[in-house]
Specification:
This protein is α+β, with helices and mostly antiparallel strands. 38% of the residues lie in helices and 14% in strands. The protein contains ten helices and ten strands.
Length: 292
């Protein structure tokens, strides 16, 4: 990830966003447009509802092969012809900001969301290139790793399968991704025991259903998960992620979770101030951790 040269200033904000994207792409940094609220554009008609195969969960580093601005981080590309194509031009004219895929650029962003998180980083992490954000800082390291939300209070890690807002090249010398950052994601994840082997159980016990499919058992588990999120008084990000992880570790492999159950968990999280994107990211990270 080389430092981009100064960007030409257009007559208004919108042309500058495309100029910024093309400049980033020329330096090997794959950009994508963001709508107001710092969220990606919705998928194209062919990909609505993951009809194309659910690319947001794909393991490769992108970009998405759809001609539209689809699948969030997977839309990011360094191809100037794609960035300037009609579907993208329309998006740039409606965009509010430029983001990029850190993993595609070969870097990891430690997103520090408040002053306390910045102080923690200064006391804990090796110095590297820093970028000022609205509420804190991005610390950028050379090297990639799995992204993870809420590895600490106000601390997220954005690298593969994630996007970060482009706020300028920053200052300072970028250093190699240290082990202390790599281990942050591991430390915040509780040990997950393998799910019980339940495939043959119904036949062996006289046709009784898997206990995970028992309505009372499942309802009690979802209700307890909702309550855990609602009662969180601090570290909401971490609580939501851990709760999602616990639910999936218990029910994720037996097929008993429905969209209604997931919706209840997302509703509880959003009632605590989590955005839909944070909910989706936490759920996706939990699925990835468990190999689901």
């Amino acid at each position: 990830m080389t430092q981009p040269t100064p960007i030409r200033r257009g007559p208004d904000r919108r042309p500058r966003l495309l100029d910024t994207a093309l400049t980033l792409a020329a330096h090997g940094i794959p950009p994508l447009p963001l709508r107001a609220g710092k969220v990606p554009f919705g998928n194209c008609p062919d990909c609505v509802g993951n009809a194309c195969g659910g690319r947001p969960n794909m393991k490769h580093a992108g970009p998405c092969r759809c001609p539209g601005v689809c699948h969030a981080w997977a839309a990011a590309t360094t191809d100037p012809h794609v960035l300037s194509s009609p579907p993208w031009t329309s998006a740039w004219h409606r965009a509010a900001a430029v983001a990029y895929h850190p993993g595609g650029a070969g870097v990891t962003v430690v997103d520090l969301d408040n002053a306390a998180a910045v102080r923690w980083a200064r006391e804990t992490l090796p110095a590297t290139r820093t970028v000022l954000t609205t509420r804190g800082q991005h610390w950028i390291y050379q090297g990639v790793m799995q992204s993870a939300n809420a590895v600490g209070s106000g601390v997220d890690i954005k690298s593969t399968m994630a996007y970060a807002r482009w706020l300028g090249p920053g200052s300072g010398t970028m250093t190699a991704l240290p082990d202390v950052v790599r281990t942050l994601a591991v430390k915040e994840r509780p040990t997950v025991r393998p799910a019980p082997q339940t495939v043959a159980v119904p036949a062996l016990v006289g046709g009784r259903e898997c206990r995970h499919r028992t309505p009372a058992y499942l309802e009690r588990g979802i209700a307890m998960a909702e309550q855990r999120i609602i009662q969180a008084s601090s570290a909401v990000h971490a609580t939501v992620y851990r709760t999602f992880l616990a639910v999936l570790s218990t029910h994720g492999r037996c097929g008993c979770l429905t969209d209604t159950h997931v919706g209840r968990l997302f509703t509880a999280a959003q009632a605590k101030g989590e955005s839909p994107r944070h909910c989706t990211d936490a759920w996706t990270n939990a699925l990835t951790t468990l190999g689901l």
